[in-house]
Specification:
13% strand, alpha+beta, two-stranded parallel ribbon, flat
Length: 89
């Protein structure tokens, strides 16, 4: 989303854990806005880490609509495991 990185540089997320997921073909498009998605998600990952927010960035084969159910399930499992580990630490 245009302006997202500027916004996220000045705001810490309310979520206690963040799972980022992107298809490896998503940034390979002629659309000027969508083609920045790879560099933006890498920057978002850096920002979250600098803010001390537990996060991960997973690269998936394919585009945006490739295997969304499995990608979402992995995200939920990662967040649950991360928050549980934080709780018991």
């Amino acid at each position: 989303f245009p302006g997202w990185i500027d916004y996220s540089e000045g705001h810490r997320p309310l979520s206690r854990a963040v799972y980022l997921s992107l298809g490896d073909r998503e940034e390979r498009t002629r659309n000027a806005v969508v083609s920045t998605v790879g560099s933006c998600i890498r920057r978002q990952h850096e920002l979250l880490r600098a803010q001390g927010v537990p996060c991960t960035l997973e690269w998936n084969a394919g585009g945006h609509f490739q295997d969304p159910g499995s990608r979402t399930a992995r995200a939920f499992l990662w967040c649950i495991d991360t928050l549980e580990a934080e709780r018991t630490a």
